[in-house]
Structures are given as C-alpha cells and as structure tokens.
Specification:
8 strands, two-stranded antiparallel sheet, 5 helices, disordered C terminus, alpha+beta
C-alpha cells in the first residue's frame, strides 16, 4: 500500500462525508467544551485513550491527557508530531483495513435514521507499535458523540484500550454492534477499480 493510495482513500472518505447536508455554520462549539471534563474523567478512571474527531473541521478537538502514553510514548515523543501520531504507528496491513472499513461504514451510516446513528458503534481490534518497537493489540470503539441540527455526523468519539488478547497477532475482526448487544455481521468484499477499496455489506440490512 503506497502513500498515494492511502491518501486517495483518505480523500475519498472525506469526500463521502462532504455529501452530508451540512449545517456546519450553526454548530455550537461550547458543546465540545462541556464534554471535555467528563471525557477526561472517563479516561482517568478506565485508563483509556479518548479522543473526539470533528468531521467538519477534519481534526481532533479533544485528546485525553494520556494520549500516546498508554503505549509508552512521552509527550516529548509526540510533541512535534501532527494530529495523526497514533495512526502512524498502526500496522500497515491493519491500517489499510481500517481505512477501507471507514469508507464502508460511512456508506452504511448514511442509510441510518437519526436514532440508528446514535444506537450503533464500530468496534475494531488491530495492531499498533508501542514505544518499545513491539506491536500490541488494541481495541478501539467509535460512536457518535454529537450530530448536527440536521442529523449529520459531527463529533465522533473514540475509546482505545489495550486488548486482553495479546497472543493472536492476526488481523482483528470488525463489528458494528448495537448498544443493546446485538452484533451485526459484516461481509468483506474487495473491488479493484484503480483504487483499492473494500465494501462491507451488513447482512441484516441486505446491502
């Protein structure tokens, strides 16, 4: 997977997001500030890495104070890095799958009602390089933190933890479970049209 291919997939992801009928000019960013103390407290209690990604600004608007340190990195290690420090440490094979998943999930997400958008979350397990130059498995949960006034995705919440499974270094399984615990099976289909892309078809929705 070349840098150009990765960039192309990332650009396609943001192009998909731009299809939303945005009300970005009406966003109340004081809501973000309201969330921050609670999110930091959650990170402290669970020793989880918590971040919030702003879809419209295309950047993280919150990172918990232990961001990076859970993998042994210091603030000096990440001080001169950009907003995607942890992304750069993901195993290349897993990073490709995560990018492909992002494209697929957004396509599925657009078919959801407002309530369905709030009821689902994506759970991913993948490998990431720690400060000792060893790959460890992590579990990351993504879910909607805030929608805009038109029901579009605005703030995406990420909670990342070290996986209790450190023996199996194969690619992790990806799910889209409901909050009530019902797991939705996802089928992986590869398509090559000049750009490597993966489409996940959620069986229960018949996509």
């Amino acid at each position: 997977m070349t840098t150009k291919q990765i960039t192309n997939i990332q650009e396609k992801y943001f192009q998909l997001l731009q299809r939303q009928n945005s009300s970005a000019n009406k966003l109340d960013y004081s809501i973000v500030e309201t969330h921050k103390p609670n999110l930091q407290q959650l990170a402290d209690l669970g020793n989880s890495v918590i971040s919030v990604f702003d879809v419209f600004q295309k950047k993280h608007v919150f990172n918990s104070s232990n961001w990076g340190t859970i993998l042994g990195y210091t603030y000096q290690d990440i001080e001169n890095e950009d907003d995607y420090f942890l992304d750069s440490k993901i195993h290349p094979d897993d990073f490709l799958l995560l990018l492909q998943n992002a494209l697929s999930i957004i396509k599925l997400f657009f078919k959801f009602s407002t309530n369905e958008k709030l009821e689902h979350k994506l759970v991913s397990e993948y490998r990431i390089l720690n400060a000792e130059n060893n790959y460890v498995r992590v579990i990351e949960q993504h879910q909607v933190l805030e929608l805009d006034t038109k029901g579009n995705l605005w703030l995406s919440l990420s909670i990342l933890d070290i996986s209790p499974n450190q023996k199996n270094m194969d690619d992790g399984l990806k799910y889209l479970p409901k909050r009530n615990g019902v797991m939705i099976s996802i089928v992986l289909e590869y398509i090559d049209n000049g750009l490597v892309e993966a489409i996940h078809r959620a069986i229960v929705f018949g996509l």
